[in-house]
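Running log. JK asked me to keep both predictions on one page so they can be read side by side. First protein, sequence followed by its tokens:
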Amino acid sequence: MRLSASIKRIIERHALADYPREACGLIVASGDKQQYVPCRNVASHGQDFRLPAEDYAAAEDQGQVLAVVHSHVDRDPMPTEVDLVSCEATGMPWHIVSVGRHAGDDMPIVRDWHSFAPSGYVAPLVGRTFHHGSLDCYGLIRDFFTREISIEIPDFDRPDDWWMKPEHGELYLENFEAAGFVRVDDGPRYGDVVLMQYRSDRTNHGGVYLGDAELKTQPGLHPVPGAMLHHAMPRLSERVMYAGYWRDITRMIVRHRDLL
């Protein structure tokens, strides 16, 4: 969908006002008219955005949500990998406006626009970029189970840096049973989830044990004996040998009930 010049100007004002944080909002249709509904960005990092569910619901009260809008700060408007994945999840067009400052300038300016729509993109299991809340260790576990084993496991809201905030508890340990897993002591074997304490005093990281099996949906990768698939911040997702450091920081191994 194309944006009118007047709506673009409103979005640009929002993006400039929120600089140096990313701005976000929604395009909503009410009758035969479209409008831009600015939303809050509740992400903890300014170079990212998280649109709260209550803001989305409030926009829906005004009409049908047609598109997602956000800004890129001090970079081009081309979608990141998480933008592409999120666009697929919403099933609607996305519009990105880039804003930034030139060296020596006090005020940011609008640099460029880019629009795109769902096209079937899926992030690879190995080599994806890290983005907490979607393309993270739990997101990789979910995608592995969907693509490689045809098992759907539920998603859970996970606030940024939750493992550093006591009020958020132990999200992995408190939810693995609700996600369909049970603790086992005879592992690891293919498909087991390894729960670890990664640079933390809490269980904040998970991976999938592959052993010597290849990824069916991403063939041709070099073999890694005794492999574990995981995605540690801020690295690309990878397969590593499940030994040494990774085994030392393991808290427990869990297995999905369908694999018992």
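And the second, directly underneath as requested:
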Amino acid sequence: MQTHKGSCHCKRVSFEFDGGVGAAIECNCSICRMKGAIWYGTDDAHFRILSGVDDLALYQFGTMTAKHYSCKSCGVSPFSRPRIAPAMWVVNLRCVDGIELSGLEIQLFDGHHWEAAAQKLLQARASGAV
């Protein structure tokens, strides 16, 4: 299993995760669209914050379910705990070393219409379509 490393811009916050990155998600909700993030999902067993825990700021809005983390120093958002699966992590692949986004299958998530998009995604996963 491949280990990927990443960080925020100033490198105070660094992290790693295990797994093969073949697909990612681009969300058009109000915050993800402004961040320009491309997300890859992983779990606690495969994700580790290596440095900078005390340098992280937490931002929550709306339902207060998702946890959006950013570096207090440079402002970059390297990872979050998403509303659709708050026990999971999503890593901003733009913060990961050596990831070529043009080579990935990027699935669109209509976060602008979050409720309907979440229901559709969860149904697709339950049926094995995703």
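Observation for JK regarding the second prediction: The longest strand covers residues 3-7.
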